[in-house]
TrEMBL record, chains A, B:
Name of the protein described by the UniProt record: L-asparaginase II
InterPro entries per the UniProt record, alphabetical: Asparaginase_II
The organism of origin for this protein: Labrys wisconsinensis
């Protein structure tokens, strides 16, 4: 059974391209409020579950012991653009752990925010691991280790005590695999754990409400949500969907993207969690799918509705600035 | 009826993402040698039919009158990387037409080849229309106009005499629309004309063999194929699929990519043309689909088979260089 087409790309008077996918919206008990496509097949939620991966940083007491700020906690959940503020914040987290950038094991890549990448080239500098979109998450792992007196080196391996905690948190929250074919390696070298969208959505309903979580985990989840809502630029960056959506909705919508077309969200006021994946892994489609889910579920003021509109029918312009096409939600998301 | 999954993306022990699509392989009479998915639905073949769009440049006598070189003819068919050789060649074409880069109406964008883009930033220069991947095609349109004493300004409009010839050639070769909902605007601002994959494939069978073409068109097609085979770097560039495939196969395989996941080819020795589209518009999938079609159809020497292998199962590496996944042909392409 193939998943339904949920996003169409228009050009001229025709549908030029199509994106199929699956969407799960669940409550904290796992009841499915919305299920489009196959929501029971395991998928890799990738960076969309960074909030779950950051739970041990809070629960272990490391964030308090090292005096991490709200902005630093937000960066621990980020897929950031490598902008100066992101690099400075990751650097500060590492300093609090008593180490420097050489402790990062995520690998280096050019800032994903184009202007930051260009500035680096103009300055004649090479990108470092601090520019890696996952450097905040990795700095969080290193903080977790150092605050507990654990040697951080090798923290990306499944057998490292910090990564065991991290993988345990993802397994608890999302019913994710901890071994076998459902464990792959992510772009930043840590394990990525497959889970069904339905289970991930249930996990985000719990993350958003604290329901079915122990008191310590519920407090950690609330603290992470508050940190990201207060610092939406930290979690992604300039011209980024996650940042702009949370600038509109604040604490009402925690949204987080992941590679290969995954997107997760928590809407605390509704008690719902969301997990979706575009089959083909394309971000333009996963973002539109998330915008459509927000539009369908969240009660919107007139201003919020207007602000959401450009995410629902984004225009495609050519190199002369002429609008040549657009995207739209399709099928059951239309 | 949805199209079949033709490409799978693997991570851990799971299929992480899937690309559906359609493939038509036809002979010059339009007989379908291979038809996967819906090959009768009109699609925009985008830059994959630049070879058809360049026919008037040759047939009008403009290429001869202006003394265009083989490399310049190859660039007229290109989606190039904006590398220095591409920019210099486009500049030379415009000079032969008696104009300069200000005559280009394609718009400016950064070179698509990253190292060329970085060199431009380091030099403190802005990208110009010469760096646009379509600048050679546009230079060809301008040459066609100027050699005939036609004012080139406005050549991107469907009503311009040169664009009428160009659209007529695409309509003749591929059964493409010349008006109505099947005409959109391309990234470089010229019209893009929808046609069924089956008809586009038949057009490339004719382009590759000259069958069912008048003698003048057959000669023009052969001249374009020879130019591209002799200058595969001109038609795309460094680290580009089209260039590398034609460096392997020379005149035996004319291959040309287009935006939104289209790919076309001509295999003259077999008398076949190919047109395919990945439904979701992703290039990683359309390239793999084309590699799989080549592997299925073209007789390969041992060396050619080995050279093709890395295009058939490309590895995905993370930022530490660890192999974390791979792509493979799937379903009827496996």
């Amino acid at each position: 059974m193939s998943n339904p087409v949920l996003v169409e790309v228009l050009r001229g008077g025709l549908v030029e391209s199509r994106h199929a996918g699956a969407v799960a919206v669940a409550d904290a008990e796992g009841g499915l409020v919305l299920a489009l496509g196959d929501v029971e097949r395991p998928v890799f939620p990738r960076s969309a579950v960074k909030a779950f991966q950051a739970l041990p940083l809070i629960e272990s007491g490391a964030a308090d012991r090292l005096g991490l700020t709200e902005a630093e906690i937000a960066l621990a959940v980020a897929s950031h653009g490598g902008e100066p503020a992101h690099v400075e914040t990751a650097t500060a987290m590492l300093a609090k752990a008593g180490v420097d950038a050489s402790a990062l094991e995520c690998g280096a890549h050019r800032p994903s925010y184009a202007k930051a990448a260009q500035a680096l080239i103009r300055a004649g500098l090479k990108p470092s691991a601090l520019h890696n979109n996952c450097s905040g998450k990795h700095a969080g792992f290193i903080c977790t280790a150092c605050a507990a007196g654990i040697e951080p080196a090798g923290y990306i391996a499944a057998a490292h005590p910090v990564m065991r905690e991290v993988m345990g948190a993802v397994a608890d929250m999302a019913g994710a695999a901890t071994s076998g074919p459902g464990v792959g390696i992510d772009g930043c070298s840590i394990p990525t754990q497959a889970a069904p969208l339905a289970a991930v959505a249930r996990g985000f309903a719990r993350f958003g409400t604290g329901a079915h979580l122990g008191p310590e985990r519920a407090r950690a989840a609330a603290r992470i949500r508050a940190a990201v809502a207060a610092h939406p630029h930290m979690v992604a960056g300039t011209e980024r969907f996650c940042t702009e959506i949370m600038q509109i909705f604040g604490i009402r919508a925690f949204v987080k993207t992941g590679a290969e077309g995954v997107f997760c969200a928590a809407f605390p006021e509704l008690g719902y969690g969301v997990a979706l994946k575009c089959d083909d892994g394309t971000t333009r489609a996963s973002e539109l799918m998330m915008a459509a889910v927000i539009g369908k579920l969240l009660p919107l003021s007139e201003g919020e509705g207007q602000a959401l509109q450009r995410f629902l029918t984004p225009a495609m312009k050519n190199w002369n600035g002429t609008e040549v096409g657009s995207l739209r939600p399709a099928g059951p998301l239309a």
